[in-house]
Input
Amino acid sequence: MKTFNEIQLAKELIKFPSITPVDAGVMKFLEKNLKKLGFKTKIIEFKEKNFKPVKNLYARLGNREPNFCYAGHLDVVPPGNIKDWTTNPFKPSIKKGHLIGRGANDMKSSIAAFVSAVSTFLCKNKKFKGSISFLITGDEEGDAINGTKKVVDYLKKKRERINFCLVGEPTNPNKLGEMIKIGRRGSLTGKITVNGVQGHVAYPHRANNPSTTIIKILKEIKDIKFDKGTRDFQPTNLEVTKINIINNADNVIPRSAEATFNIRFNNKHSSSSIKKRLNKIFRKISKKSKSNYKIEYRVSGEAFLTKPNATTFMIQNIIKKITKIKPKLSTTGGTSDLRFIRKLSPGLEFGLVGKTMHKVDEAVSLNDLKKLTKIYNIILENYFK
Output
């Protein structure tokens, strides 16, 4: 049985400039290597109008339960100005005990670690009782329209059963072993456009300034105290991210003004309950100012919490044993693909230290990568006992 070295495989994966939604051949490369371990694989490409097609991979070894799934993404964010890097972001190099390259941290090295862990596990456990699977997307860093969400729908239609899922995102803030993610806050983005009446600034009574209205709206929604947080979640927060008034003249009251905001909400709320509360404010203020408004919402995901079970605590204990740190069960941070996978299976997230993700000279500690591979291997050993 072939075994894979996690460092070498990570380097190979990083060489592919798989900037969302471009695949660059990386999915085929991973598929080829999983086939060497005996996996049955399928690359699934999804398309949707106004969005670029995305390749995804589902691979499974075995046809019995339980099915332990590893989920991750092979797409990466753009490197930015390559001149700012000390090395070519897609020509991985090792410096001072770190592997440098785009995706080294988020999250090609984690995928390499799990492939390596599986290859070692299979050498000792050729006839293990159960299945191991991979759910890999190329659309985690982008719109998440043609990625994991559609793979989950596809697997549900195929009646594919996953018993537990480990998402390999970089969950640790500073040191390997600090944090396991068991849930995430929901994310709702709103874009509001207020239409008034254009006019001369010297004659404001003949116009209706939409900027005045939108300022009142933004102040009121920003001042909302949604909650104080819960035992599992930090408080809900709303942040204004864009304000735009198209006006090329200084002596003209504009006709329209628009703003965008994002809300990260905990499980005390749903996207529907938040929309209802906001819409009430929009109607009240626009009516008072005799303005018209248009609101567009986009929900990236609802808040969710995976109740810890025996597998959660088993993984927590293994991490503590290897890193000498007991990881905190957390719901902090942004959204992740576990928000889609939870509809198919319970799960958690654990991977590398996320300090350099999306940064220039993104890097992973070689020691951390070796430890993560060991953790993943022991998880498999214990899960299939």
Remarks:
- The domain at 6-184+304-383 is CATH 3.40.630.10 (Aminopeptidase).
- The first helix runs from residue 6 to 14.
